[in-house]
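Box 3.1 A note on notation
Throughout this textbook, protein chains are presented in two layers. The first layer is the amino acid sequence; the second is a token string describing backbone geometry. Keep the layers aligned when reading.
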Amino acid sequence: MPVVQSDGTELYWESTGAGPPVLLVMGLGMNATGWWRTIPVLAERFRVIAFDNRGVGRSGRPPGPYTVAGMAADAMAVLDAAQEESAHVYGISLGGMISQEIVLRHPERVRALVLAATTPGGPAAVAAEDATQAFFRRRAEMPADEAVWASVPYNYAAATRRLHGDRISQDVEQRLRFPIEPEPYTAQLEAALGHDTLDRLGAVTAPTLVVHGTEDRLVRPGNAELLARAIPGSGLLMWPGAGHLLFTDAPQIDRIAGDFLSAPSSPGPWSPAPR
């Protein structure tokens, strides 16, 4: 099992496939198993590097507080362990926040960037509804299996819940392989709530694609528009009928992300080829 030390915490990481490297950065309370749909798609043409953030999965669980900047340093330790000087970076939700800090603090290490279902944070961010925020604070007090199932209406689009319950069950099975514990979940959540990059995103020079589902209840779609306006030359893909875990609601999104990362690495607007 590959591991690396970062600021005294042991981090689990894994590598699949061959080709240009892509570093996957997962979101709140989830670990590398959350990329189980994405990894085989991207591994057809990339070396895919995934890892468990501090506090979850097979990585260490140090006491909080955590910061997004500190978790970005963890990601760089993983990239060092994988012996890659630079990589494409694909982050979702909290992982997208971490990815923003990576590209701002280590621009030379990011070839291109995909930011999915995420936010720049700060006072300008579009907040989730009060009931949604309250649920995710209360979630830490629930047993792991109850918490995962109770999160379903917040994570998935209505059509997926109605027509593709099998996809949700498959995701839940992966998530419960390494269930999150209350203390590190809260530490990750507080890190996310402290995230604020909006005033710095104009410095991003890496080609960037912002992807968001129009039915995202957890991170509202208006946050994608904020990111796309703030990052020079970035592309914006709003996916109708997708929720927060948009690669489950619309699995083709991972192929589109791969197409973007395979495109010439030069700044400028980008749109997906018709499918």
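Strands lie at 3-6, 9-16, 21-25, 47-51, 87-92, 110-116, 208-213, 235-239. The chain has one domain: 3-262.
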